[in-house]
Amino acid sequence: MDPQQSRGGGTGIPAAVLALLGGIFHLVGVAGGAVLLAGDTDLGRALLTFLLHLIVAGTLIIGGVGLILAKPFGRSFTIAGAVLALLLYVSVLVLASFGVYFLGQFDRTLPVGYVALLCVPAVATAVLASVRPTARWVTSGWS
């Protein structure tokens, strides 16, 4: 490898941090889903909220830890988790436009600004994890 060429820690580590922060954010959603399960009359919506947040949180946290450890699975899980998060956010908008509210959305307003704000770190995570320097990071590791 050329000594001038970066090993990818400059993109791999920020992607890992964003993945872990996104995972923590979705763990809060897991807790909210658990609260909904305990008290909501719409069991389907509560279970959907709980499970979707759990899947995204687990994928992002596994990916973030894997990236910190410079393991190839970390990159794959981080990309998958960020894409799942983006799909989740877009589905909130699409379903809300049809009057179906979940993931804690109870009012009749379309959460465009909220979803747009959530998409920024998810897109950044996916991009940072996808770039070639991050691929070098997971193949060369810490050494």
Descriptive keywords:
single chain; 143 residues; mainly alpha; 0% strand; elongated
Write structural notes for this entry.
With 143 residues, the chain is an all-alpha fold. It has one domain. The protein has helices spanning 9-39, 43-68, 72-97, 112-130, 132-140. The longest helix has 31 residues, at 9-39. The radius of gyration is 17 Å and the shape is elongated.
What is the average of the pLDDT values?
Answer: 85
Order of SSEs, N→C?
A: HHHHH
Instruction: Count up the helices.
Output: 5
Distance between the termini: 13 Å
Helical content stands at over 70%
Name the poorly predicted regions: none
Rounded to an integer in angstroms, the radius of gyration calculated over CA atoms is: 17 Å
What would you call the structural class? mainly alpha
Strand count? 0
Count the domains. Answer: 1
Major sheet summary line: none
Keywords: Membrane, Transmembrane, Transmembrane helix
Transmembrane segments: 12-38, 50-70, 77-104, 110-131
